[in-house]
Amino acid sequence: MRGVVAELGTLRPEDVTILDMEASIEHLSRGTVRHVDMLLVVVEPYFRALETLGRIVPLARELGIGCIGVVANKVRSPEDEAAIRDYCARLDVSVIGSIPFDEAVQEADRLGRALLDYMPTAPAVRAIAKLTEHILENGRTLLKKETHNGHRREAEGASEAWHGR
Predict the structure, then answer these.
(1) Where would you find the membrane-spanning parts of this chain (predicted)?
(2) DSSP alpha helices (H): ranges in 15-163?
(3) Is 46:76 a contact under the CB 8 Å cutoff?
């Protein structure tokens, strides 16, 4: 898997590849994602999820991944979002989007349908669209990398774009 991921960016660098990985540190500890340009960590407002985030971020940094962002998922209240944001602040990583808890997700799943087809105006769909726009608007800045001694480094301004400054 590591070899395939590494080849994706060299064979067709103009393409965007999105990998939906298992919720664990396995892909980081094995170096599978060593060659990604951007790592989005989706985290729910639960202790175990935050604890996993606390292991993922340092491993990603060790691998030289310059763009790390967090997506708060299944957020039910301002307290949920605050808990995730506070934890991320301690890790010096930004929450770049928030997706609310949405019953429509479970309903669509029960029916075996894609959420977008089942309810295209669902709150979760709108939040994901907003997150996608943010990534696309800032992506060019975020993904302009320089290489220094074989390690990736964020280009000037990338950090500010990522953090929404």
Answers:
(1) none
(2) 26-29, 47-62, 78-91, 103-110, 115-118, 123-143, 158-162
(3) no
pTM for the full predicted model: 0.75
**Looking at the domain assignment, is residue 162 inside a domain?**
no
Range of the domain at 34: 2-157
Report the DSSP pairing between strands 38-43 and 67-75. parallel
Report how far residue 91's alpha carbon sits from residue 54's, in angstroms, rounded to the nearest whole number: 7
Half-sphere exposure of 98 (CA within 13 A, CB side): 16
Domain membership flag for residue 138: yes
Integer Cα distance of 40 and 68 in angstroms:
6
Distance, in Å, from the CA atom of 130 to the CA atom of 39, rounded to the nearest integer, reads 18
**Is 164 among the domain residues?**
no
Strand 94-100 to 38-43 pairing: unpaired
**For the domain that residue 83 is a member of, what is the CATH number?**
3.40.50.300
> How many domains does the chain divide into?
1
36 domain-assigned:
yes
CB 34 within 8 A of CB 2: yes
Q: Render pLDDT for 114-148 as a digit per residue (tens, 0 to 9).
A: 999 999 999 999 999 999 888 888 766 655 543 33
